[in-house]
């Protein structure tokens, strides 16, 4: 492989314009040929799946999450038109909790030796609670995007990007309240949210029961 790739994992429930801006800024700042958007099949730190990591450190409040297959469909729709962006469904296809360290090992096996791992500041702060955090840092160059002004980068390199006060939580809440999400997500994502009836009623901060 000739150049670095960026790995941008997450729940993407749904993907929004902030994710796209972050991916573009990472590609430009760190010279990445491709940015892989990898939705977690089971984002165990959010779903509260019984894992050694969650038993060791209490997970965030549990919430329901849209199915991995549907979130991958949303990601594919969001990335249309940018040849550097690529959806990657390996964690959706993999059974069990989605461990970043497993994904990084797979990518190394595939020949990717220069990997830029993109984390939000909240994920970077939670990294010690993940599976094999030291191995993650060995396998990838970690860069961090601040989720809020002054959130910090937990000692890692900081992504230079404009701050956008948009989040998947905000979008789910707006849909549940019957408010517009136009311009907060790509048009193709907005259409899929409407088509599948996503987020119309929140359950523990998550999605409508039909979307789980």
Protein described:
There is one protein chain. This protein is an alpha/beta fold and 212 residues long. Helix content is 38%, strand content 13%. The protein contains ten helices and six strands, in the order βαβαααβααβααββαα. The chain has helices spanning 17-30, 44-47, 52-56, 68-78, 90-93, 100-109, 121-126, 133-139, 168-176, 187-196; strands at 5-10, 34-39, 85-87, 115-120, 141-145, 157-158. It has a six-stranded parallel β-sheet, sandwiched between helices. Helix 1 links the parallel strand 1 (5-10) and strand 2 (34-39). Helix 4 runs antiparallel to helix 10 and helix 6 packs parallel to helix 8. The chain is globular, with a radius of gyration of 16 Å. The model is unreliable at 203-212 (pLDDT under 50).
Secondary-structure blueprint of this entry?
Layout: E1 5-10, H1 17-30, E2 34-39, H2 44-47, H3 52-56, H4 68-78, E3 85-87, H5 90-93, H6 100-109, E4 115-120, H7 121-126, H8 133-139, E5 141-145, E6 157-158, H9 168-176, H10 187-196
Parallel strand pairs: 1-2, 1-4, 2-3, 4-5, 5-6
């Amino acid at each position: 492989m000739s150049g670095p790739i960026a790995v941008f994992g997450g729940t993407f429930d749904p993907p929004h314009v902030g994710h796209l801006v972050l991916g573009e800024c990472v590609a430009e700042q760190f010279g990445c040929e491709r940015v892989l958007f990898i939705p977690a099949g089971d984002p165990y730190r959010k779903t509260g799946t019984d894992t050694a990591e969650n038993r060791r450190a209490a997970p965030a409040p549990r919430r329901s999450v849209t199915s991995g297959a549907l979130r991958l469909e949303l990601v594919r729709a969001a990335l249309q038109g940018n040849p550097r962006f690529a959806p990657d469904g390996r964690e959706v296809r993999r059974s069990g909790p989605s461990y970043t360290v497993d994904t990084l090992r797979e990518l190394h096996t595939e020949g990717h030796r220069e990997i830029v791992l993109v984390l939000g500041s909240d994920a970077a702060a939670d990294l010690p609670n993940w599976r094999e955090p030291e191995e993650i840092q060995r396998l990838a160059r970690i860069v961090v995007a601040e989720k809020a002004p002054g959130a910090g980068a937990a000692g890692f390199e900081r992504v230079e990007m404009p701050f956008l006060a948009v989040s998947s939580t905000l979008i789910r809440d707006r849909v549940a309240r019957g408010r517009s999400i136009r311009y907060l997500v790509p048009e193709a994502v907005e259409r899929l949210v409407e088509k599948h009836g996503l987020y119309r009623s929140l359950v523990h901060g998550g999605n409508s029961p039909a979307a789980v």
